[in-house]
User: Fold this.
Amino acid sequence: MIKPNKIALLPEKIAIFPLTGAVLFPGTQLPLNIFEPRYVQMIDDALASPSRAIGMIQPSKPGEKTLKKVGCLGKISSFNEAEDSRYLITLSGLIRFEVKEELNTTTPYRQIIPDFSRYKTNLEKQEVESIDRSKLLALV
Assistant:
């Protein structure tokens, strides 16, 4: 389990889930319905790991392989297996990352080496009471 107090404890490589229209922020939760076989395998592998973590990131444009510059590492905080080989998971956002390098892998899903260094403060307790939610939603 990741203890969100030290960057050194975060995974050195992560599986990524590039999904248009789904944004994860540190300290938030994102429910996901996982049904594509390659991402079902990714969740199987993440659940078997000590961190239970995957990275959420947006493609640069829908259908493109290139990625946005910043994503968010999330921990699978709950999951249910459906009878039709789907997962219903909740991903809890931990810390943002930049893509340092995309790895050539034999897995059906993509993996990267993340760079968390610019986002160390994401691991600290945040003051969220003063956030203007309507402005934030307009930006998203």
